[in-house]
Each structure stands twice: as structure tokens, then as C-alpha cells.
Amino acid sequence: MHALLRGWVLCWAMLPLLAVAELRLLTEQAPPTSFLRDGQPEGYAVEVVRELIRRTGSQARIELLPWTRAYFLAKSEADTGLFSVVRTAEREALFQWVGPILQGATRFYSLKSSKLRIDSLEDAARAGTLALPKQWYTYETLQRMGFTNLYGVPSSRQMVTMLKHGRVKLIATEDLTLREELASGGLTPDQVQPHLAFMRSDYYIVFSPQTAPALVERWRGELDGMRRDGSLEGILQRWLPAARGR
């Protein structure tokens, strides 16, 4: 057989294998958008991704991993996605983007008993120690703004625990995950004082650069379909009735 013809035969033979490549879709423990319940991934973003898997006919599995590990894999491995990711200028070229699927607002919070008043970024920068997980985009943002009162911690639970025991004056987190994050450290929303919202974030599903662009485009198209037929809004209302979808 001619060498060129053999090459075409080989390419056609490989197409079924390429078509059924399994996607590895990664997320983190961030209720109510993604979390484990009885060993199974659940949450708003998980339900959106499951519906997109169904509509696109993708072979895929959803895994919960620590954020740092998941983020590294989503940048470097073929057929790998990550959700939910805030879209920023620094991250733009690192991924292929599908979304947004959700919008959240980030605020400063203090204990009500502290009687703090935060009306501006300058007030927050002078209010005392502000605890944040060091891997969060919020930490990076405030650091770039020149905040010198940041205290980096490994988890949102530690952030809340430090606030509860008066070891820090402020924390900052999103309205989407506030209730669950407070509960992890032994606080409730009625024990904290919300202050100004200083950042709004659009959340996306992302795929690694090595993932086939045609597949990513199919996901974009099906997400647009979910917006048009109201199913995306329906999922949002079940999980986050006060939140804003996109």
C-alpha cells in the first residue's frame, strides 16, 4: 500500500478513539457550588456540568481535588477541565473558556460584636489584620491593591476560625459560599457584619489548551442552549435563588 494511503487509513482508524476520549473534569470543595455528598459530587456547578456532559454526549468523570492540584492539571493535561474559575486577565491565555455560569460579589466581613465600620477600601486596609486563603484570587487582588494587613492562611475554615476567636479583624469572601464557609469555622451569618462589596467575579468552566478546540466550542454552544431554554436559570434557582446567573 502506498505510504500516503496507509497514513490516511491510520488516521481514519484513530477517529473513533479520539471521539471517545474521556474528559477529566475537576472541581474543589466549595459548597453550594461543588461538594461531596455521600461520596458523590453535588452542587450548582456540578449539576450544570452534568447537564453539559449529557447534551454534548461527552464521556467524562467529575473529581474533587485540592484547588492547587486541580488548577495545575487543568493547565497542563489534555482532555482536562476545571470549574468554577474566575476569569481574569492573568489567566486568559492559560485556558479555553466556557461561560460564564455564575456571578458572585466579594465583601469584607467582621464580627458584629467588633462594631467595625468599613465604608471604603482605605478603611479595610487600616482596620487591622485581614485573613484570607493565600491561594485565593481575592488575596492576589488585595495584595496588588497595596494592602499590607493581609494574613495568608491555608483554608477558608482557618480564616473563619481566626475571625471567631478574635485573632483577626476582617475576612473577605463571596456571597455565594458565605454560609457554608462560616459554618465550617463555627459561625453563622447573623454573627457577622457585611461591609462593602469590592469585587464582582464571573465564574467559568475552563479546559486546558491541549483539549480539542472543537469539543470546547461544542460545550459553549450547549451552554448557550441552556440559557435560551431556561434550564440554566432553573438549576440556579434550585441551588442559589439569590444569586445572579449569566
UniProtKB/TrEMBL annotation:
Coiled coil residues, start to end: none
Residue ranges occupied by any Solute-binding protein family 3/N-terminal domain in the UniProt entry: 22-243
Pfam families xref list: SBP_bac_3
Annotated InterPro entries: Solute-binding_3/MltF_N
Domain of life of the organism encoding this protein: Bacteria
Protein name: Transporter substrate-binding domain-containing protein
